[in-house]
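User: Can you model how 6-O-phosphono-alpha-D-glucopyranose sits in this protein?
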Amino acid sequence: MCGIVAYMGYRQVVPILMEGLHKLEYRGYDSAGCAFLSEDRQLKVFKARGKVANLERLLAEQNVCSTLGMAHTRWATHGGPSELNAHPHLSQSGHIALVHNGIIENYATLRSQLEKRGYTFRSETDTEVLVQLIEYVMSVRKDDLATSVRMALKLCIGAYAIAAIDDRHPQQLVAARKASPLAIGIGENNEEFFLASDASPIAGYTKKIVYLEDEEVAVLERGKKVRIENLHTGVVDYEVKEVDLDLSMLDKGGFPHFMLKEIFDQPAVLRDCMRGRLLEKDGRHRVVLSAVEQYREQLANAKRFTIVSCGTSWHAGLIGKQLIEHFCRIHTEVAYASEFRYSDTVIEPGEVVVAISQSGETADTLAAVEMAKAKGAFIFGIVNSVGSSIARQTDTGTYIHIGPEIGVASTKAFTGQITVLTLLALALGKTRGTVDEEEYEEVLAELDRIPDKIKKVLQQNDKIKALAQIFTYARNFLYLGRGWNYPVALEGALKLKEISYIHAEGYPAAEMKHGPIALVDQEMPVVFIATHHQLYQKIISNMQEVISRKGRIFAVVTEGDEQVKNLAVEVIEVPATLACLAPLLTVVPLQLLSYHVAVAKRLNVDQPRNLAKSVTVE
Ligand code: G6P
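Assistant: Here's the modeled complex, given as structure tokens:
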């Protein structure tokens, strides 16, 4: 939600900021803006509605010459997506500029207090309240920018990542964070600094990165060591990390969209995910997860597992539950992080809470982790973004290592999460002695073959593309699956909703008769996921129920299937695999289907309306 990038140093700032904003555009794209300090110390602000490209066009007409500036791409929370509400916001005097990601919850109270003191507001945003508050504090206490930011933030309730500049303090760039991410890149000899919501805009310039912690304020001054102060305790020591990002993952690699590239990336990145974890010697496989080795006691003796996550990661959690219960025989629950964090649920010491998050920054998941931690649970993270807030809050965990995911609709992260959950369940099952030796070998050997089998599914891209053309008319879709494929039905429906704006529901196939069947008619496509596994015959009966209501069936089936072929309008085949690994294959055609439907409808696949990749507000 909202992307921030800022620079202070010796290079021209515009290309750095624009390149950075493009990399962060996945975080929000309803408006963008930037502020620069010109050579004659004038603060200049430019804003544009819509995508970063609009701002870029606007800047091309200007002649900006500056080595200090900051920029923002917005996902609206307070106030609609207008130019007026776009960031940066200026203080009343026009001296201070601020960009902000997050929500100041008590902004209405602060605003009315400031109004009483003569402040007027141009926008509807909470951010403008914060910048006015900083100015007010500065006018009363006569402190510098950094101290004023610190004092103002003490009065704020909520979440923030901010960057601020003041044309009266042209040597300072001030940043702060609470519950929204912010990384600082440090150049050679502290001669330049970068700030960004994630490391991707920084990685091309420096590997030295500091991740700000909650309630920390950083002061960046050319030629000086970064100073970081906690809001309450004062100056803190911090760690400078060496971050090595694979920058090739940040471009589309010849594909028209990130989403398509990321779908096609899956065979390779799942290999990366398993590397060094799934080992083979003399034809026998084994899993080694350092987190399980190191925390054997806490994990293997857990009274219960609870998986907390949101969106696609929640769907992966539903598969995780089946994996952990099947291989480890440990009772496992799956909760929406947003519900869990405010629930009165019973969590006790001796329990394990697994947080699944691609970004590692989802506000609800982070809060769920904090709540579970406070209740004494042991926290295990399954995260993609290295060094992210959730990764840092957990007791241990396993990164999925699938490279940055840019497309807003999550694809490779889902299969990466399932792969890690499979490895975790097998490693733990082995430790607990609850997994059968033969099955252990069988599943691992098959997991090793999954990337090649995904390649075979991807070969059907053209067929799925053709199929997608006939779906563009549909206004409603039903996705049905059972057992291991039930979460895949939910995920297929979510993918379609997210990027094609067609209403879609995912359901357990047999549950359909308790409601959704009322919607079925010849207009409604019904997608069945019906691979050759234990509930295959049952799902055939569910198909008959749909056909009797004139529903049109499209199905994902196991290669060579004849029965479903006779019932469905069209089938997509996936190679045969074990039931517990089926989701890794069956989800792929559904990802492609939603992608091609959205493209056929000429929609913006990578940046669908109203959504954002990293949801750092609750
Ligand atoms: C947003 C994204 C989804 C994602 C969800 C959870 O809604 O658009 O793709 O599944 O957040 O994100 P996380 O980073 O925690 O997995």
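A couple of observations from the model: The radius of gyration is 26 Å. The first helix runs from residue 13 to 24.
User: Helpful, thanks.
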